[in-house]
Structures
1.
Amino acid sequence: MVVTIKDIAEKVGVSVTTISRVLNNRGYLSDNLKKKVQEAMEELNYQPNEVARSLSRKKSNVFGLIIPDISHPFFGQITKHIEYYAYKNGYKLMLCNSLLNKKKEKEYIELLRASQVDGIIMGSHTMKVEEYMAIKLPLVTLDRRISDTIPYVSSDNYRGGALATKLLLRKRCKKIAYLSGSLQLNLLAKQRHDAFMDQVRGQQIEYVVRQTDLNGFKYREYEPMVRELFQEHPDIDGVFASSDLLALQIIRESRRLGKLIPEELKVVGYDGIQIGGAEDLTTIEQPMQEMGKLAVSRLLQQIGGEETPLETVLPVKLLERGTT
Amino acid sequence: MVVTIKDIAEKVGVSVTTISRVLNNRGYLSDNLKKKVQEAMEELNYQPNEVARSLSRKKSNVFGLIIPDISHPFFGQITKHIEYYAYKNGYKLMLCNSLLNKKKEKEYIELLRASQVDGIIMGSHTMKVEEYMAIKLPLVTLDRRISDTIPYVSSDNYRGGALATKLLLRKRCKKIAYLSGSLQLNLLAKQRHDAFMDQVRGQQIEYVVRQTDLNGFKYREYEPMVRELFQEHPDIDGVFASSDLLALQIIRESRRLGKLIPEELKVVGYDGIQIGGAEDLTTIEQPMQEMGKLAVSRLLQQIGGEETPLETVLPVKLLERGTT
DNA sequence: TTGTAAGCGTTATCAT
DNA sequence: ATGATAACGCTTACAA
């Protein structure tokens, strides 16, 4: 049998209440008692049952994290930081990969509520606004403005888009393309596109916009899009890709075509993923560590009953490297 | 207040036992009753409390996953698959990033036990053998043979090492290097090195072995090691890197030095990560999906009281691509 | 300073 | 077929 608080109580010869007090360091306790209890715990190798605690306290110290795909470097990195700060604050993390599957996302949300998690960080969203509003749990989204009541943490997408586009203009590109994953999926990343358009319109420059309608993260499938782009527009000399992974695909394709980078083609990515192969890529770096930290702290604020600002927009940084 | 089984019972006019029965579909229940209960649940928007269930059933339906770093593509990908199969079997996943920090790993193990998880998948190991043996919980390790009682899932590291090395020999390399992260950390990956040595010894070929003593995943710090290697041995014409990330670093450095790949230098990586930039890399692919699947199923076996084989070694595959 | 007892929301064991 | 009631392991008023 597993050792419980009751066994400790019997061994020491006090009530369970007292043991619980020692455990939580509440109330007045003689040092002698404390010591005896500690010893008994050691001896019996006692471990508190967090499930029982959660039930009793109505608090689980668990956060749910719902993202599309943990194997995507952007989410992998941000998750790393979220875990770091959650752990630091005494919270565990339940990992939920939605794969942008509506049913799975919904099931996970229900599962998280049923599991009495103390808060949810959403980096995925495929359901209707009302369904998120109905969650009634501390909630924060990553890079997604779902409604004007659900707090979100993002980086400055518009500025990122502007920085990237301006760089290409400054480098005297004559015909530039904006490439992105599905725009619908991510409202805020759409601002990169808006910024691109604002920079490009009215300028003496040709431009092309392309987006996948993949509702997924099948990076492999970026390839045909990129190939097609260059077939239709072989004279493109600048590309702003809305993710580093996409940018890498472009670089790969242009190598195949024998286009020299940056001489004949300049490429700017987005995210700032720290992965071999992306290290020479000029890109817009999102402050992933800060984003993770703030996502956690927005949740903690809500749990603590504090006011939480609707928007938390963090600055991005242009990393000018080898591909421009 | 939150709706409980009791509220449903009152509304329907039966006992909580009956509601619980409906919930778990146990025993004999009239269809009429079932329907009425279902309706009441819908109406009151009832959600079972998993914490209470776990306490009562002594089963949480949660697995703990301890890995060094979720932002490393290898672990990101394998985690994706683990999550997939866990979910499919009704288990949630608690994500624990150890950062190869002994204290954190130990704390997490305790936390997982306290949280009554039903099993642990360990992809990290920094503690002493006995400490793992003392876990007394369904356990499976990834790519780590800790003792001969703890089941592990891995791919065939020796064969992977042999395949990679043989390829370089077949391609007529004259001087090849084996590069790896810290060998101590990962007993099984060490077999890649053994295989390398077995292939290379007694052949008419020069070879060099280098390993970081980084006890971490600071990929950035691979750079100096790689640079140094080429300074000391500018005549190397083949490299077997024990991870794709390391291989990418080598490719990067050789570009800088103006060495042509594969003409002047051939590079073989390891892992088969699916990341832009690694797509042209010749590498040894680990069957990550199968590994994730089997890690989960080994845990399920243990939970089900079945015999679990000590070792599960899956085949690797040589992907011959652009860098050889 | 310590103890009694109720309560957290479910499940499980007997009854009936 | 359905119900009482104890039990899961812990916390927390309220007492003493």
Note: Chain B has a mean pLDDT of 91.
2.
Amino acid sequence: MTSTDGSGPRPTKQRLAVLEALASVDDFRSAQEVHEILSSSGSPVGLATVYRTLQLYADQGDVDVLRREDGEAIYRRCSETHHHHLVCRSCGATVEVEGPAVERWTTSMAAEHGFTAVSHTLEIFGTCAACS
Amino acid sequence: MTSTDGSGPRPTKQRLAVLEALASVDDFRSAQEVHEILSSSGSPVGLATVYRTLQLYADQGDVDVLRREDGEAIYRRCSETHHHHLVCRSCGATVEVEGPAVERWTTSMAAEHGFTAVSHTLEIFGTCAACS
DNA sequence: GGCCGTTTGACAACCATTCTCAACTCTGAT
DNA sequence: ATCAGAGTTGAGAATGGTTGTCAAACGGCC
């Protein structure tokens, strides 16, 4: 796994390009979309590499992953603290929100039922002020 | 289509079989799993039909749909009141939980940012006591 | 019984994602 | 600089869930 051996993953050209592409938009994008962005911006990166890179950074917590309603995975570069998203159904605008109370609630709820290794997903969808 | 024309979908043998299969387990099951349950219980139903049926009832709100972490859609016959799920990653055991505080939090958070027509998803995944 | 719209099921098509593997690229040591 | 070896890449194939196709089967209804 090469997890904590000091060397860590190499910041290659391709990986930086993927991060940069994600940074250049501030919405959630699918791997396919990131791949297109890269192709049309003159620094094409193989699709498999895009997937690997997104997964890599997602595992490290450097990008957030969530699922569209049709199941496609979408990625976004986010702040490091744990948070959730308020997403506009119409234009895709995203607001990061924090809810310590929610974190506490999920944790205690899980503990109460004997669950361990707990993770949770919480997303809020709606229509933003500009779109309504 | 055929939404409110009085006739509605026909309660065919296959559709009832799908609902029954879902009722016979009280976990979330994927379409593929439902298909297997039906096959091995002596009332085989085509895979495409299982998908269509689950979608049909999901649209009607008779079954809940959510996504596993790998994106696969899973279905369950649920109580009608709004609630969330605590799901075991390993065996699929499910606990329905309610959290009025969470409902209030999401609502106020959305309002604060001018979002309307709000919905939300909240699922907790973990390893249950029996599986850990 | 026969007509007609609905439903079914076997199979192909789709599409996101992962796998394979040979070629390539860093990094560190000689 | 050169070499070796581990890490990384990319093209294409393989995988697997899901949806589309379409002819055959079914269920009411006259």
Note: Chain A touches chain B through 34 residues (CB under 8 Å).
